[in-house]
Design a protein that fits this description.
Blueprint lengths: L3 H10 L8 E6 L10 H8 L4 E7 L2 E6 L4 E5 L4 E5 L7 E7 L4 E6 L5 E5 L4 H4 L10 H9 L5 H6 L9 H11 L12 H20 L40 E5 L2 E5 L7
Antiparallel strand pairs: 1-6, 2-3, 3-4, 4-8, 5-7, 6-7, 9-10
Helix pairs in contact: 1-7, 4-7, 6-7
The chain binds a DNA duplex through α6.
Amino acid sequence: MPELPEVETVARSLAPLVGRRILSAEFRGLRVLRGADPDRMAASLQGHRIAAIQRYGKFILVSLQGAGYLVIHLGMTGRVLLGGPPGKHTHAILTLDRGGVLLYDDSRQFGCLQYSRELPQRVQKLGPEPLEVPFPEFEAALSKRKTRIKSLLLNQSFLRGIGNIYADESLFRAGLHPLALACRIRGDRARRLHRAITAVLTEAIAAGGSSISDYVDAQGRKGFFQLSHRVYQRTGEPCVDCGAPIRRVIVAQRSSHFCPKCQKR
DNA sequence: ATCGGTACCTGCACGC
DNA sequence: TGCGTGCAGGTACCGA
């Protein structure tokens, strides 16, 4: 499900939980706890009030008043839902005051929930926010990487929050081939990429993200940015700009969709 | 220090 | 109907 725009949408939809108290926590699927003890985790959460909920890259940070963080990553299929009956893939149930219930669902279990006093290492070492990184810093970072641009955009220590959809869509808008070498993208081409990333992410957030299969926010609402995808999962369909069939190649073990005419190395 | 390749899971669409 | 295959928004870890 979740890249920056989807996680941002989910985090925003959790806003009604700020100020509420966690009465209890129950964990079923233990894989999403990544080895943490479910009883200790529940004890760490119990009784604390939610001070803030924010997105950080693809993570959701739930700040507990004076008591650390509940750190949530949605993986590929994670969903956070306010209320509703628990299902086959419900791994966590948080009971809140005033009758609130927060469920964590995740069929593939690539996501995780973690309690931590400080921000965990893997969160701290993420790169800058794509919507905040200034162009000179972005260009300088590009110049130091010998890898292909598609791989680099997926690397969370380069920028935090971009995933497969928005990498492909950004490269299309910038007119850059996914296999282009990052260190050779300079000047005008770098500028175009920086602008494309900003535009794509901003538009996607405004659309509530992309609902590819069953992604919904915490209140069950779908996003509609999938209607604006120009290359992602459009293999064989005509390019919206030139009509050439969109092609698919594997880069960094992930599908890359691009227009062979509009996107140059 | 940086790369690419592999592993981890379940569900779905497709062809036979 | 059922089975095998390939594919899917993710990251962690390994060895080169």
